[in-house]
Amino acid sequence: MPEARSGMWWVGDSPIAAIPGTLTRVDDHWQLDLIGTLPVNTYWTDSLSLVPLERIYGACHGIKYTLDGARLTDSRGPVLTRQYLDPDLTGDQSWQRWHGTTLLSGDNVPKDALFAYASFEITGLSTWWPFSGLRGPKAARKADDYQAPEPLTVDLNDGTTLKIWARETHLNGLRIRSLEESVTILFQASDGFTFDYLQENVIAPLRGLIAISLGFPSEVHGIELVRVPENGHEPHLSNPRLVVDPGCAPEDVREYIPLLTAETLDMADFLPQWMDIARACRVPLGVAEPHNRPEDLTVQVVSMVNAAETLHRILTPEPEATTSPLAERVLETITQHGSFNSIDRRKVRTSLSYSEVSLEKRLQDLASDFGDEGSAWLFDGMMKDWALVSATIRNALSHGYATHHKVEDDPGALFAVLKFTQITITLRLLIAAGFPSDEELVRRLSSNRRVLALVRQQMTSWPTLSKRIRSPR
């Protein structure tokens, strides 16, 4: 059973208004049950949606905690209406329930706290960065002969530094001597960074990269933070540590079929570009990244194709607004009429101008960036049919269009659109950061069983679906 942490909890800078409560791990989130109410916007029981995400601080058995991303899910108090008021319950307590995403133990971390560096691990990182002193031709035969692999140090474009290295842990006892490696990422910024910045601009891009490279959801654990020195003193001694989800299963490296690893690409050049691309394209990356969240298939399809459209808008400059031939004829007519002044004519011209690129064309552009050979191989020469089917299904589901072909009701078509659009977003993100395209892309993908299974799928036929869509009623 997950450990319960009972203590005092509060919001803001001072624990003066702290109230008692218990924190437990429930499914994929932290649940905090409080006796009393925190001073947030809870005037009415139906105003829970108006309460923003909070950062809640706590102290339990001499340990300080920070619960981040806390969302108020329930808030109740004694019934005060006359017909229900019970004199024996006048001392009844109010209570609240909060759900949080991240728990730090070891310190109360305010939003503006600056850290000098952070270290963390990601599930799958040992596969993605496979270098080791315990395996391979230079593997140590005994602990005394161990030599750590050369670390990877990368200077990012914003002046910060990433380091990926194998941290060794020695265990020596009366009858035991062992050595264990754990691949760790170290992030450092000379001017300091906040915990929010670390999560959004460092952890999320790297976790997304490893997840799409391995084709499995990745989670971050073992975060350690060290404060920026204050007034010339040494770094803060209390190093907040991210509490690991007690339900997290150990990773099984045998399941991974890597699309990309640090052994197959020069990460010194790739990582700086990837961090910039991932930060700019956080929505497409967040949707395409493998997740364990169960969702309806139609919802997944709409989200995935929307993410592809967003990715194209970010990576491709939008065309300038142009005026259609019809607009020119309208302008000529109203000019000859004489009753429209220059302001009216300018408004008409603006309203008749357009710069919109169709969703079908955006999907074609994304896939074309794989190169002629890359696009032809992945879609078996039917890329345009895939783009038409994907755009048609998204528009029908998203806008509620009534269609005669009912392709949007075909489960096989929905699943194929989902998976092919996901790999399209994945490859386009990687290529934007320096992953090869065209012939080299085909060479790499053709040896990946996960991609081959997708290319050889028999659940649907793009030309058949395209023909259904184009056929008359």
Structural account:
The structure is a single chain. With about 475 residues, the chain is of the alpha+beta class. The chain has helices spanning about 125-130, 195-215, 265-280, 280-290, 295-315, 325-335, 340-350, 360-370, 370-380, 385-400, 410-430, 440-445, 450-455, 460-470, and strands spanning about 5-10, 20-25, 30-35, 55-60, 65-75, 95-100, 100-105, 115-120, 150-155, 160-170, 175-195, 220-225, 240, 320-325, 355. The chain has a six-stranded antiparallel beta barrel. The protein has a five-stranded antiparallel sheet with strand order 9-10-11-8-12.
Please compute the radius of gyration using only Cα atoms.
28 Å
Kindly, what is the distance between the CA atoms of the first and last residues, rounded to a whole number of angstroms? 59 Å
Low-pLDDT windows of residues = none
Structure annotation, total helices: 14
**What level of helicity do the residues show?**
25-40%
The count of DSSP E runs of length 2 or more, i.e. the number of strands, is 15
Q: Which structural class do the helices and strands define? A: alpha+beta
Characterize the overall form: globular
Strand order of the largest sheet: 1-2-3-6-5-4
What order do the helices and strands follow? EEEEEEEEHEEEHEEHHHEHHEHHHHHHH
Strand content: 15-25%
Largest sheet, described in full? 6 strands, antiparallel, barrel
Mean pLDDT: 84
